């Protein structure tokens, strides 16, 4: 709901549990008023404080507190909007020109505040969208050059967010690297400016464009948390500030420093959505609200149950051929797998990562009759057929590169730096994007492909687009827009197609790509122990319904660690269960245990994929790591627990289970034991973890009808 007080000029955005208030101040600038628990318009008026005329003070305008701080006037903080006009001058002065309130879809309302610069015909719109079923507020900015000369947007953030004055501020976010993504950090927000960013062309393994701020007192289940997430899959920057006068806020959007967005006469630029959320109930409640929002409003098919998949990568590497894939597919089907995915190595001269990337025809020596026979065999086994692609890349040793050396990002006369022996195709070029769309739609159509694992295995370098007007600036945004366009076109052509986003593991996971895909490969690290920490960070914002996780062989290829098969399964069951081991080497006992665990997952996956997730302990501490997934109506729940063998004498502490139906009783589907909800919630469940290193368990509890 969106309301307005003409007397005070306050706009009030109302979500189920929160309010967001702003007003246009005496200078015409949009100023923040409140973001927190619900308020009426009248109550919001009580927050108005007389604004000192900035001209009276030494300080200028406060560095946080505006809805989109611009470069202009007496502002000295990091600008959300920084403009350079054709005459070389900079600055923006707010002149309000109108507003609109409309319903983009049933259950949602959008406020658009319209402004222009007082001097140049540059128009700026601030968009705010609220919905009836979520506290997430979606913001974005639209800029239009109505003049007859180019304008350069040196910085065009989606939104700036302001916190109320708090006694302290703490920042939660993730850092990482390849095979160690999503490492959760919680640190006091330093005074000054803290920049979270990716300059790599992709969202990146190293940082992810979400953050949470609290007063330093929030726990997993108590306290107020403000969080935001940017829906963008290219480079990005979020600058959080803690000001000398004790305030905090942040601005963020697409692009990194040194790049700009040129706006030709008449051209419009729409920023990605920067979504914000204020929650009570600690980090757990914040995560659950993001999960629910992503399922309901981001994923194209968030309510759909994801299939159990098999992926060949760790089993075969590049050594892919029809016979070996069929052998694996037969074993996978016997395990209960529903989707068989052939990974890298099926095309062109691809025998290693040194050659063939870009030549997307099945390798004749390995698939003499093309992919048809394998696709048919997989379908004949009752599974869906999936295949790996990396459409944005090329090996210099490929027919594609020999034919189109100009298709890659490059700067004439400079080195073309390789990473993983490959170069980046310039998807900002319409001909390159069309070429990719063309072969992909044929591949999917011709071979009855049900699933694409869309990979992207290197960062941009020498990011130039010779020949295009302002190409080196335009490419950052055009690349992502065209990537989204290819995904959208493929989905429209093939409504049954499902897509996994992958970028050397979790290098491209964000709300932008998740709006066009169905799931994400969270990391190339399949070590179940390392994975617990990665999954813990991943799940702070992104739901288990999107998190693809495989059971692979031991010793783990990356870490050399050996943990029991059951532990590996339980870890992968915390997301979308997949199998990635070499099934031709699994013993009869392992295959039997695997089949049993796949069947068990199928009985509880609706809870993991669509239930509410409660993290009940810190991951990888002295106590077991415990996560609960509970159905919306609390009729059923799953508890997954993992632990490293404790020292003898370590007390076993029962785990208290939240969100159960008060007074009800729950039956353990494996043991038949009946528990009272009051006991489970107030006194806890004593987990029956086997002795020894790396033990784990899955407890499935079902509520009994009142009469039982
Ligand atoms: C990186 C991915 O993350 C892996 O799962 C695998 O698909 C390889 N690329 C293949 O080259």
UniProtKB/TrEMBL annotation:
Claim: Disulfide bond is one of the keywords in the record: no
Span of domain Glycosyl hydrolase family 36 C-terminal: 625-701
Protein name: Alpha-galactosidase
InterPro entries: Aldolase_TIM, Alpga-gal_N_sf, Alpha-glycosidase_related, GH, Glyco_hydro_27/36_CS, Glyco_hydro_36, Glyco_hydro_36_C, Glyco_hydro_36_N
Keyword annotations from UniProtKB, A to Z: Glycosidase, Hydrolase
Family in the record: Belongs to the glycosyl hydrolase.
Glycosyl hydrolase family 36 N-terminal domain mapped to chain residues: 28-264
Annotated source species: Streptomyces phaeoluteigriseus
EC number: 3.2.1.22
Organism taxonomic ancestry: Bacteria, Bacillati, Actinomycetota, Actinomycetes, Kitasatosporales
